[in-house]
Amino acid sequence: QNPKTSAIVKQLVADGNAGELQKYFGSRMEFGTAGLRAAMGAGISHMNDLTIIQTTQGFCRYLEKNFSDLKKRGVVIGFDARAHLSSGGSSKRFARLAANTFISQGVPVYLFSDITPTPFVPYTVTHLKLCAGIMVTASHNPKQDNGYKVYWENGAQIISPHDKGISQAIEENQEPWPQAWDDKLIDSSLLLHDPYATVNKDYFKDIQKQCFHRNINKETNLKFVHTSVHGVGHKFVQLAFKAFDLSPPFAVPEQKDPDPEFPTVKYPNPEEGKGVLTLSFALAEKDGAKIILANDPDADRLAVAEKQESGEWKVFSGNELGALLGWWIFTCWKNHNRDTCAIKDVYMLSSTVSSKILRAIALKEGFHFEETLTGFKWMGNRAKQLMDQGKAVLFAFEEAIGYMCCPAVLDKDGVSAAVITAEMASYLATRNLSLSQQLKAVYDEYGFHITKASYFICHDPKVIQQLFDNLRNFDGKNTYPKSCGRFKVSGIRDLTTGYDSSQPDQKAILPTSKSSQMITFTFANGGVATMRTSGTEPKIKYYSELCAPPGNSDVEQLKKELDELVNALEKHFFQPEKNNLQRKTE
């Protein structure tokens, strides 16, 4: 019943454009553990009013089956600032339609009245003890995309088998219920609540438990620049600084207000490096700021850059910032917990494609480190399990600039990560240390961990399948590569098939998934490289790392060795020319 998407389809029918109609209606968007992520537009392969109604009807029925008290507890729904003029879709509209679906079934809905960072949704689920949460966002995807992200009652993103159950329920509830389109009905409903004021107050109170140096924060001369890259983060990072008694960061004026067109950047993704930070560098130079904090548009990720002595800007990788925050959060914990026995209940987590630096710190300091599959859904769920057993999960991170620094949010959170990074930098400044110098000190103490990650773009699923099949049948059927150029392979773990050469029974310990590709190669020189497909983008990604024991300080030699390993990986395993793969470009 949306006049815009309806008109698009009618026009295609009138034009007899079977090819485009096939694209729009050939296959339904797949609901996975990440929920939905697709372009806004007409048809069942896109995000629009109808597909949001259908998805929410399925999700509602699935929750009714799982929670006898759903009508007492309810759900929370948040949204970012995305909008798509040509199809009439927007995050706010989708959120309202989803709220209407639940309310029509007598389920209380806590619908934020304004845009919020993604982490506010998982925070609200646990804080208000709700059954589930929905965040309408496409994070840092291109502007035409939107998404529908789902959290379970434990405050973590859903994992299997919930995705299958919800997907099935969507299939069974495709016809819109009687008042599905009339979202105005919710405005007069007693089942509609607005958690905005409460959550804004309580969230900033809760993250203050991670504030350890209020006096330093009040006095510091260090200046920060913050950009929210046309997303939702500006107001919330300002409030976080206030909660920590830090002077507010300078906001990049052209990027501080939400704008669904993302006019100043090619991709609204701070992970893409310096291109996204051009305006931040200019403002920092003008205002004499040493450190830049950049959130992605839904403020669940954080990139950090620091001005070096040379005048150059260093953008920290996700692994480098993970090393710094891991060191910092553990140091703060240690200074406030004199009881040496308590360390046996302390945990840190990271995903299997992230740097193993936390493992090195844990080994030396005596706390526990665990690695999980890629993605915060795994770390959030594991953290909750550990917390329920009385353990303290201090920190979790993934190399894709995602950090969980505060146990009140069981997902990545770019708001708390930004202010905790600012406090760490302010503290280090009192010791005349920069973030870069402290990073080197961490590596000196725990061993250098050099990482390199990139990706190739490939729009043809058949080529991707063939590439991975080739690796599994490298020297004849069911044989993996024994070497990669001059680098000897010493171990293989394939989390698509469940094979792990290092286990006595050759079965992988981490959960396996046939629906995504992921192979990890361990090399005789201490290198590790993982190749995997992306769940949300047409990419084949790779992650590589060389870990040296403490004392091996020839960083240039380590970097050279890793560069050679990566070149061999690209040449022999990816074969970009043969497979027609497009390289990542700045």
Describe, in plain words, how this protein is organized in 3D.
The chain is globular, with a radius of gyration of 24 Å. The chain has 19 helices and 25 strands. A hairpin with a 5-residue loop joins strand 23 and strand 24. It has four domains: 3-190, Alpha-D-Glucose-1,6-Bisphosphate, subunit A, domain 3 (Alpha-D-Glucose-1,6-Bisphosphate, Chain A, domain 3, 3-Layer(aba) Sandwich); 203-311, 3-Layer(aba) Sandwich (Alpha-D-Glucose-1,6-Bisphosphate, Chain A, domain 3); 319-446, Alpha-D-Glucose-1,6-Bisphosphate, subunit A, domain 3 (Alpha-D-Glucose-1,6-Bisphosphate, Chain A, domain 3, 3-Layer(aba) Sandwich); 448-583, TATA-Binding Protein (2-Layer Sandwich). The chain starts with a helix and ends with a strand. It is α/β, with parallel strands linked by helices. The mean pLDDT is 96. Its cofactor is Mg(2+).
Gyration radius (Cα, Å) is 24 Å
The overall strand count is: 25
What is the mean predicted local confidence, pLDDT? 96
**Secondary-structure content class:** alpha/beta
Number of helical stretches of at least 4 residues:
19
Q: Globular, elongated, flat, extended or rod-shaped: what is the shape?
A: globular
What would a concise description of this structure say?
The protein is of the alpha/beta class and 586 residues long.
List the helices and strands and how they pair.
Blueprint: H1 3-15, H2 18-25, E1 36-39, H3 49-66, H4 70-73, E2 75-79, E3 83-84, E4 89-90, H5 91-104, E5 109-111, H6 120-127, E6 132-136, E7 145-151, H7 162-172, E8 192-193, H8 196-207, H9 214-219, E9 224-227, H10 234-243, E10 250-251, H11 278-287, E11 291-295, E12 302-307, E13 313-315, H12 318-336, E14 346-351, H13 357-365, E15 368-372, H14 376-388, E16 392-398, E17 402-404, H15 414-430, H16 435-446, E18 449-457, H17 461-472, E19 483-484, E20 487-494, E21 499-500, E22 518-523, E23 527-533, E24 539-547, H18 555-574, H19 576-579, E25 582-583
Parallel strand pairs: 2-5, 2-6, 5-8, 9-10, 9-11, 14-15, 14-16
Antiparallel strand pairs: 1-7, 3-4, 6-7, 11-12, 12-13, 16-17, 18-24, 18-25, 19-20, 20-21, 20-22, 22-23, 23-24
